[in-house]
Amino acid sequence: MLKQASVSDLISERVNRDIGYVTIIMRRYPRFINRALRDEYLPCLSPDRKLFGNLISAKRRYKDHNGAFERVHFDERFTIDHEGMEALGRLVRVARKKDVYLVCQCQIGKHCHREMVLLLAKKLFKDSKVENPRNTYPKFLKRLKDFKKLYRETFIVKPNTAKKSKQTRAKAN
Ligand SMILES: [Zn+2]
């Protein structure tokens, strides 16, 4: 099953590589987390630099975790690219056989992008085994069609090959 965990779960060893496949999906790697504690570091499933920077500034300024997400319109801005979608597809496959943990700094129960990644896995991948997020993300889910498009481009229509075959056809004519 695809699940979420926090950096403190890793430190306290409540979550470890013996019980599941551990992936860190943060923009900045948590320096105090030894490589041996995780299987993969996947920044492609984290917010981009600009959004992450805006969120950190808002958190510092207002000392309000969930409020900071609101202020920077996080749910309307968080996205992943083809690389992220491919990685998510791979994790969903692994999660059919064992627990896969998506790790971020945020405390469990707080607003976090890893819950949006869980939602994407649940909504986009058939037969995926995904833990329910603790929060709701209506503004994020309004954008589901954009992610469906990304899913199709990543797994069904490979945009590059489609373009290439069109060019080849044009040449043949
Ligand atoms: Zn987080």
Percent helix:
40-55%
Q: pLDDT under 50 segments (min length 5)?
A: none
Number of strands: 4
Strand numbers in spatial order across the main sheet: 1-4-2-3
Taking the alpha carbons of the first and last residues, their distance comes to 50 Å
Largest sheet descriptor: 4 strands, parallel
> What's the overall geometry?
globular
Number of domains: 1
Quote the average pLDDT. Answer: 93
Bound molecules: zinc ion
Explained architecture:
Helices cover 50% and strands 9% of the residues. A 4-stranded parallel β-sheet has the order 1-4-2-3. The model has no long low-confidence stretch (mean pLDDT 93). It is built from 9 helices and 4 strands, in the order E-H-E-E-H-H-H-H-E-H-H-H-H. The protein has helices at 7-11, 49-62, 65-71, 74-77, 82-94, 113-124, 138-141, 144-156, 159-172, and strands at 2-6, 21-24, 40-41, 100-104. It has one domain. The protein is globular and about 45 Å long. It is an alpha/beta fold and 173 residues long. Bound molecules: zinc ion (ZN).
